[in-house]
Amino acid sequence: MGLFDKMFGRGASESEQQQGAQQRFNELKNKYQTVLTTADNERIQFQNLHVQDNKLFIRAIAPSDEAKNKFWDQIKLVNPNADDITAEITVDSSRAVGAAAGGGQGGSGQTYEVKSGDNLSKISKQFYGDANEYMRIFYANRDKLKDPDKIQVGQQLVIPPE
Fold first, then answer.
1. For residue 9, what are the contacts with CB-CB under 8 A and spacing of at least 6?
2. For a tag site, which of 16, 81, 126, 143 has the least CB within 10 Å?
3. Do 33 and 78 touch, CB atoms closer than 8 A?
C-alpha cells in the first residue's frame, strides 16, 4: 500500500469509506498525485486526507512559507480553479528547525519505543485517541520510516504533540 492510498484523519469516518466516496477519493488522488508528491518532497505533514463534500480535503502543516507556496503552485498547475480540492495549510517553522537538526521532531514531541504487535494506528490510538491520526507519527519520523506499514520493534519514534 502506498503512502497516499487511503483516507485518514478525523474526516475519514466509516460512512465516508463507502464505495462511492472511496472511488471519488481514488479519482482525486490520481488527479492530484503531483501535489501529494510535492507535499512529500517539501516535508509537509498531513493531518487529514479524505473526501469531503465531493472534494479532496487536505489539512496539513508546512515547515515554511516556501514549502506552502510550492504546494499551492502545484495545485494551481493541476487545476487553476481548485474547485474539487480544499486545502488548509498552516506553517510551523519549528518543524523545519527540528527536521534540519535531524530530529524531525519540531516542538515538544515525546518518544515511544515500538513494541511487539505495535503498528502506527495502535500507537496513534494510544496517544491521540484516534487510530486514523497515524500519519502524524509517520511524518514526524520520515527520517527513520519509509513506509507507515513497516515499523520495527525497538525503534524510537517521535510522537508529535496534539
1. 46, 47, 48, 49, 50, 59, 132, 133, 135
2. 81
3. no
Residues 87 and 61 in one domain: yes
Residue 127, phi then psi, degrees to nearest 5: -90, -35
Give the total number of structural domains in the chain. 2
CA distance 27 to 101: 37
Query: CA-CA distance, 84 to 68, in Å (whole number)?
Result: 19
Cell 474547485: give the residue: 83
**Contact between residue 121 and residue 131 where contact means Cβ atoms under 8 Å apart:** yes
CB 104 within 8 A of CB 138: no
The per-residue pLDDT for range 74-117, each reduced to its tens digit, is 999 999 999 999 999 999 877 654 443 334 434 456 889 999 99
The amino acid that residue 58 corresponds to is I
Q: 15 Cβ partners below 8 Å, 6+ apart?
A: 21
